[in-house]
Automatic annotation (TrEMBL):
Top-level EC class: hydrolase
UniProt protein name: Cytokinin riboside 5'-monophosphate phosphoribohydrolase
Gene Ontology CC annotations of this record: cytosol
Domain of life: Bacteria
Keyword set includes Acyltransferase: no
UniProt EC number: 3.2.2.n1
Matching InterPro entries: LOG, LOG_fam, LOG_family_nucleotidases
Biological processes, Gene Ontology terms: cytokinin biosynthetic process
Manganese found in the keyword field: no
GO molecular function: hydrolase activity
Family: Belongs to the LOG family.
């Protein structure tokens, strides 16, 4: 434990950081080994703080259930809230459910609804694995972590570093202000290109989401 007010030389801080990052490649490889076992996947993002009696929890579970019935493996961050709901929906449908958990100081427990899992030490490789070649991404309401993840996926699509797939922001009421900011501030100031605002879809219609994802798969199978 470093005493307070002790100034650690920057070089030592960098060396310590690099030491901690030494197993990043191993973590990415471990995640890849899991992903390659599954043909069709949908990644869910959303708050870990949402309880089982919350409507978002129930919707996430229902959507994951329907997708799992259609043969999609559900991927989440493996924690509680929306992650638990999506993993649970897949399990209750008799499907496959992956949890890519993260080790934290106040450790985030892996929910009990996964058929495959891996616990990452670092956020960076975890994010790479969770955004690696999914057939779709569904973002339920969440906090800063969810915002980080959705912006990452949209940016990768915008810059053509990722093959375009459905990106769904679930619940119009929650995402309305975010979408308004994109259309009324970012786009008019030419901070993104025309058409970038159409990279994502906002809806709370489960049938619409399932149909959108299945239509993408149909196009890929042609």
């Amino acid at each position: 434990m470093t005493p307070k007010n002790v100034c650690i030389p920057r070089e030592l801080q960098l060396q310590a950081a690099m030491f901690r990052l030494g197993n990043v490649d191993e973590e990415i490889h471990a995640g890849y080994e899991i992903l390659q076992k599954y043909h069709k996947t949908v990644t869910f993002f959303g708050s870990a703080r949402i309880s089982e009696d919350n409507g978002y929890y129930q919707k996430a579970k229902e959507l994951a259930f329907q997708l799992a019935k259609d043969g999609y493996t559900i991927i989440t961050g493996g924690g509680g809230g929306i992650m638990e709901a999506a993993n649970r929906g897949a399990i209750e449908a008799g499907g496959q459910s992956i949890g890519f958990n993260i080790r934290l100081p106040h450790e985030q427990s892996l929910n009990k609804y996964t058929t495959d899992s891996f616990a990452f030490t670092h956020f960076a490789p975890r994010k790479i694995v969770m955004t690696l070649l999914a057939d779709a991404y569904v973002c339920f309401p969440g906090g800063f972590g969810t915002m980080d993840e959705i912006c990452e996926i949209i940016t990768l699509t915008q810059t053509k570093k990722m093959t375009p797939v459905p990106i769904v922001l679930f619940d119009k009421k929650f995402w309305h202000k975010w979408d308004e900011f994109v259309h009324e501030s970012i786009l008019p100031n030419k901070l993104i290109s025309d058409g970038d605002e159409k990279i994502y879809t906002i809806t709370e219609d489960i049938t619409e989401v399932v149909d959108l994802i299945k239509s993408q798969q149909t196009c890929c199978d042609r």
